Amino acid sequence: MTALQRVALWRSRSGGLTDPQFALAIVIGVLLFHVIIIIVPLAYSFWLSLHETNVILRSREYVGFDLWGEALFEEETQSATLKSLYFAAVSVVLSLVLSLGMALVLNQEFPGRGILRALILLPWAVSEVVTATMWTVMLEPSWGFFNGALQPLGIVGEGHVWLNKDWALFWLAVAFTWHIAPLGTFFFLAALQTIPQDLYNAARIDRAGVISRFYHVTLPHIRYAVLIVLVVVTVEAFRQFDLVFAMTSGGPGTTTQILPLLIFRYNFQFSQYGLASASSFILIIIATILAVAYFVLMTRRTKQTRVAAAQRRAAIAAESS
Amino acid sequence: MKRDANLKLFVALSVLFVFLWTIVPFFWMLWASFMTDSELSTGIVQGIDDPTLDHYNRIFGHADEEAIHGGQTKLIGQGFLNSLLVSLPVAIIGTAIATLAGYAFGRFNFPAKTGLLFGLLLTRVLPPVAILIPYFTMFRTVGLVGDPGGLILTYLTGIIPLLSWVLMGYFATLPLEVERAARIDGCSRLKVLWYVIIPMAAPGISAAFIIAFLFAWNELLFGIILVGGTKWQTLSPALLAISPLTAVGYSPIALFSAASALSIAPPLILALIFQRYITRLNIVDPVTVRE
Amino acid sequence: MATVTLESITKTFGETLAVDDVSLHIEDGEFVVLLGPSGCGKTTTLNMIAGLERPTAGHISIGGERVEHVPPDKRDIAMVFQSIALYPHMTVYQNISFPLRMARTPKAEIDQRVRAAADLLRIGELLDRRPHQLSGGQRQRVALGRSVVRDPAVFLFDEPLSSLDAKLRVDMRVEVKKLHERLGATFVYVTHDQVEAMTMADRVAVMDEGNMLQLGAPDDIYTRPANLMVAGFLGNPGMNFLSGRLANGGSGLRFEGSGVALDLPAAAASAAGSGRAVTLGIRPESVEVGDGAADGATVHGSIFATEPVGSDLFLDVLFGDDAGTSDGARLFKVRARPDLKVRTGERIPLCLPHANLYLFDDAGHRIHPE
User: Is ipTM > 0.85 here?
Assistant: First the structure.
């Protein structure tokens, strides 16, 4: 073997990673970090969920899936799970409508559009704790803004309690929507900007009204953004702890005690680590199922609509030439 | 013509609504922070006779009266500093790691790519409370409770999947031939990344940096558990400690409003920078993305 | 300076066969053009020479050294891309000096070489600009400068002129050719534009569907196309084809079909048997209007359309009576003098000189002239 051949061989081993090998090396590096920092705690959490811990006796006893059963069928956990679902559902609906609405408005031409685009991002930039402060200022019954503004108009009665036991969770979802919707707005704005103006013009020539233009031109192009917003808001709503903890701490009573708050109390108030861990898995499983379901449903549909959109574009191009 | 006028009116009203919806909560929180406690208790919707800076002075430690609620007020300033010391490393390290991962996912095809990407993204679904106790136990074992290192590590795991996803979309939009030109011009793959890809992706990377910074700056739960009540307490737990809802002892909402108002200065500045970049982000579909 | 050798290289992407067993030896200092329609495998072939793709099978050598496993940055090559691919965040000076900086060339030498390259390409006054401030032609020169400055053994070009407008393309064509003459390096140039291939190349490799159809000097592949594909791809307007059969007629071999019947030159007889399906080809510029020379076949057709382009007049001539009576292609392109006076629908005689007739068999291979 000549020296030159040896050099070539050496190069083929060192500098000659193929592109997939190179990418895989990076990804495995990053994932390894994640596996250690997430899978290990998760495994530990799973182990905890199979054990009944008694802090006073400092004992730990293997109980199998008993605590999972308790977490599933205990009334307190069930009620918290339902509250989490309600909170997520209201947040998702409000966020979707609001962020799409804001995106459609910000996609119009009007003076000051650039400034407004910058401004609407601000609620997203502030923390959940500060969001809680602001909405407390809005909703406080004795001196808050809503009552201060609405009482003189006779819309609400004296000292109306907004965060009452029927509506507190709803208003938490409103506050959460205020915080999270700007993110959705920017996903929608980015999608709206990819729609060729020609399509709107063509639709207008075909005498399509505002609603039919939205349905046939806008919607197919933003379908993927809808998916993103659905997933992001759902996941964030199920994860949400900070806002509820800072604003109502689960009250009044336990009416806003969503699952993350209950798990927090199991852990730090009652030291029921096993039950807390088992309940955590319920939360994880629901959130994962929803996220995966969205993706499966929407990606199947987006592929179809992409093909349809491409065909429409081709047809329009063929007509205009 | 009449329809046009109606449409214009509708757009104008919508713009007004979006503006008010966004700005009104900010406005009244600031308004409250300039009121005295007694004035605020009679209602927020009124002119302020004598705007007071007392609350701000108290937070900066200039007021005579020592904090009325367990000396927590002076921890706001410390929390501000601590949050900075935690958020900056999170943003820098998180963006660096996510840049590598995003580049690999956005530019190359490799076996099990979709599966690995999903695996990474699914960790984002994990609610923080679900891993609270394991983290606490693990960190206590290695002495990272009450230490910013543990908090930084926690935040990194929380934010890297999201950043990788965002950057992956951005890298996929960069022209492939420029990258190839750099390979021909004598760059190894990592040199291409450093000399060509990163400069070209600067807007996307800046956006990722800001997202990471805001996440670390705003987070509450892990802050409470890992550094709450210690000298490394970050801003969100420090704020909560003077919240009228959760504080031990009397705490006026006006003071809380002032502290909240101060705490949002860095996020607001970053958000205003960010909005120039976020419109250029390209969020890609992790299922159908193919190079 | 180096030779480039491809030995039976094959590249597949999943199920798709992009390059199929291509072999090619390029001499040191030679200018070779890979010509073919889009999707023919020419760019993939170039990318494999560059090291941007790895061949699925086969060997590549540059300067006699095997390079399949050498990454692009370790091969002594420069490349100009279709999208020009300047670094958008660098000035012209930084763009041109980039390969030298990556090679850790001393600063003084970098400066001297960048300025020399800039002078060569007449972009000396643009060095402080950024790519987005340049015109298309200027960007192209900078891209050339970036490859010239390294003094590489092999220059690779991937349709570098296709993004320019027509007039600029003609100028840059000359420029690239001059560059080759001055540098004397090995050039491998990919294009789908046959004019670029004809004007610049020492040798042209015509590719289609991953196969190399013919390799030869431009003049050679133009006058002696190996098959129908090559014959049809070169020339503008392209060669006329008439499909039909061979028959034995009065004076010798005859061609019949597509509404015409004509006598073939005696030389063609050796290639053919009676009744064989063939395609007859002739280039538009070879056809003469009128009864013409003795050594040729005369056919009659009616004028379907005329296309005056100033220097020439192109006629579309229709054979046969009306649609449906004959098989295969019937429209014939003819290049006539611009002052010829004809009307649409008029019947005219055309002379097809024997010397310029081609015959291809049913597999597309040329059978005449041999």
Answer: yes
